[in-house]
Design a protein that fits this description.
Elements: E1 34-37, E2 55-58, H1 61-78, H2 84-94, H3 101-104, H4 111-115, E3 121-124, E4 129-130, E5 136-143, E6 150-155, E7 158-159, E8 166-169, E9 177-185, E10 193-195, E11 199-203
Parallel strand pairs: 4-11
Antiparallel strand pairs: 1-2, 3-5, 5-8, 6-7, 6-9, 9-10, 9-11
């Protein structure tokens, strides 16, 4: 794709196109619109916007293809067991719709949406019942997103001021149960957040005693 989002003059057309990625106007060495590290040797192209010989600007399909490969690598880093076909489908399904398919395939590559295929899902484990005034520990297990995570715990809607994957808490109220929730935020570029399902904990004098925390 050229900088205006159109098809580049040197790009192929046809049903073989899977997805499109940004490139530039030029297809010559040391000239273009994509900046990358320079492996052309010393002193290099020295064509970056800051004139640094460790970087170069270039275009062509050689600039677009590594971006698609990089998104595939990010997906596999999160789910290494995925097959080639599943990775291809995820890249295609997350692409921005962009012009006719014979020119752009599924559309314009969208790394952010491709990685959002890993929903952030926190779950709070046991105990499910406790004795009144006995301190117990609840642990949040998290799948999806990009670690490290931050945590915000609440009990009956009141913040507990925690930023740990666990909550140590003793109930002193008068009710027969209380509700715990945790909101987890990941380290993705724009930070995804998700709240766990409510964990209702029964208060009973016959509940098993919690171990030391």
């Amino acid at each position: 794709m050229n900088p205006e989002g159109g098809i580049a003059w040197y790009s192929s057309n046809g049903p073989e196109i899977d997805v499109s990625a940004p490139s530039g106007y030029n297809a010559e060495s040391c000239a273009g619109d994509i900046v990358s590290t320079d492996l052309a040797g010393s002193p290099g192209c020295a064509s970056s916007p800051v004139g640094d010989s460790d970087y170069r600007s270039f275009s062509g399909t050689s600039a677009a293809a590594p971006q698609a490969a990089g998104v595939a690598a990010l997906i596999l880093a999160r789910e290494p067991g995925l097959t080639q076909d599943v990775v291809r489908q995820r890249i295609c399904a997350s692409a921005d719709v962009w012009g006719p398919s014979y020119q752009f395939g599924c559309g314009k590559l969208n790394a952010f949406r491709a990685l959002q295929g890993f929903p952030l899902t926190p779950i709070i484990g046991a105990p499910n019942s406790v004795r009144k005034t006995h301190q117990c520990r609840w642990i949040a297990s998290v799948t999806g997103g990009i670690p490290p995570y931050s945590y915000a715990w609440t009990v009956n809607g009141q913040s507990q001021g925690y930023n740990q994957p666990f909550l140590d808490y003793a109930y002193y109220g008068t009710g027969s149960s209380f509700t715990i929730r945790v909101t987890v935020t990941d380290s993705f570029l724009h930070a995804n957040s998700a709240q766990s399902p409510p964990k209702t904990v029964a208060v009973s004098p016959t509940a098993p005693a919690c171990g030391p925390v």
